[in-house]
Amino acid sequence: MKLHRITTVALAMAALVVGITMRGHLLIFVDPISIGLATLAPMLMMVVTHGRRSADLARAVGAWLMGRDSNALDPAAHRTVAGMARDYGQYAVVNGCICALIGHVMMLQNMSDPNAIGPALAVSLLTIFYGFIIQLVVAVPVSHHHLALAGAGPDEFAHQGPSLRALGLVGFNAGMSFLMMLVALGPWD
Amino acid sequence: MNFMRIAALLSTVGLLVFAIAHGSTILIFIDPASVVLVPVVCGLMLVATHGGSAVRSALRDGLAGVFGRLDLTQEPDRARRVATVANSGMNFSLIAGVVGGLVGLIQMFQSLSDPSAIGPAMAVALITAFYAACLVFLLFMPMARNAAVAD
Predict the structure, then answer these.
(1) What is the ipTM of this complex?
(2) Distance of CA A171 to CAs A38, A94, A168, A177, B102, Å?
(3) Out of A147, A171, A182, B127, which could bridge A82 as a Cys pair, Cβ 3.0 to 4.6 Å?
C-alpha cells in the first residue's frame, strides 16, 4: 500500500481549502443535504446504468487511492473502468445542476425574506460545486489513469460527444442563479 | 531554442497584457487565492493521476518539443506520453477553473447583504476562470497539439 497518491490528493484538497479561506469562510461550503444529494444520486445512477459492474469501479477507485496498481487487467477491462469513471463524473456534474435547479425553484417559493435569498442561492449552487469536486478528485483521475494503463489517449471517448455539454449546463445554471437573484430582488409588492 | 515560436508566444502574451493594460492596471488580474485554486490544484491532481516523474518528463519533453530542438514526430513514444499528460492537464485546468468560478459565485451570493463584498467575490470567480483558460491556451493546448501531430 503506497501512500503517495492519497497524500497528493489530500494536498490538492488542502489547496482548495486554502484558496477558499483566503477570501471567505469555509463553513458556507458545508451543507449536509447537498453533500448527501451530490454523493448518493450519481452512485445510484451508476448502478442503474452499469448494474453489478459498478462494484468494479468502486474497487478501482479504492485501488487507485491506495496506490495498488492493478496491472493484471487486460486493456479492454482498463477501458471499461475508464469509461465507467468518466460516466460517474458526468453524472455527478449533471446531478449537481439538477439539484441546483430544484434549489432555485424552492427559493422562488420562499421569497418573503429578502436577506435569505442570497444564502439560499449559494446553497443551491453547492451541489454543482460538489459534483465538480467529485469529477476533479475521483472521476477524471481514475479515468485517465486507466486509459494510460490501457495505452489509449484521453481522446478515447471523444466519439461519445463533447463533455462540454456538462459545462453548458453549468453555464445555464449560473445564468439562472443570476436571473433568480434579479427576480428575487425585484420590487414584487 | 526555436526563436520563432518563443517570439510568437511572447507576442500573444504581449497582446493580452496590452488588452488588459488598456482598460485598467494589470495588478487586478493577480489574485493569490486564484493562483492557489487553479494552477496548484491542477498540478497536484496531474501528479496524483500520472505520477510526479511522468509529469516532470512530459513537461520537459513537451516544452522542448514546442520551443526547443526536440522533434516529436521522430519519437512517437515520448510524443504519446506528452499528449497524455497535456490532455489530462487541459481537463484538470477546465475543471479547476469551473470550481474556482463556483467558489467565487457561492461566496458572492452569501455576501449579498454587504454590497462592498460582492465585487471581490465575483472577481475570484472570473480570475480563476481566466487562469484556467490561460493555462489551457498558453501551455497545455500547444503541448498537446504539438505532440498529437506525431501520431
Answers:
(1) 0.77
(2) 18, 12, 5, 10, 10
(3) A147
Contact A129 B101 (CB under 8 A): no
Indicate the burial class of A70 (C-beta count within 10 angstroms; 0-12, 13-18, 19 or more). middle
Q: Is B122 exposed, middle or buried (0-12, 13-18, 19+ CB in 10 A)?
A: middle
Which uninterrupted H or E stretch holds A125?
A: helix A117-134
What are the pLDDT digits (tens) for A119-175?
888 888 999 999 999 999 999 999 999 888 887 776 677 666 556 667 777 787 788
pTM across the whole model: 0.83
- Helix then strand then coil, in percent of chain B rounded to 5, is 85, 0, 15
Residues B19-28 have pLDDT tens digits of 888 878 888 8
Which of A15, A125, A144 is nearest residue B106 as measured by Cβ atoms? A125
Taking only the tens place, the pLDDT of each residue in A56-84 is: 899 899 888 888 876 677 888 888 899 89
Q: What does the block give as the cell for B145?
A: 497539439
Closest approach of A45 to chain B, Cα-based (Å) = 22
Q: Which of B47, B83, B109 sits opposite A122 (nearest CB)?
A: B109
Size of interface A-B (CB pairs under 8 A): 131
What is the reported pLDDT for A129?
Answer: 93
Using CB atoms, pick whichever of B101, B112, B121 lies closest to residue A23. Answer: B121
- For residue B93, which residues of chain A lie inside 8 Å, CB to CB? none
- Say how many C-beta atoms besides its own lie within 10 A of residue A115's C-beta: 8
A135 contacts on B by Cβ (under 8 Å) = 95
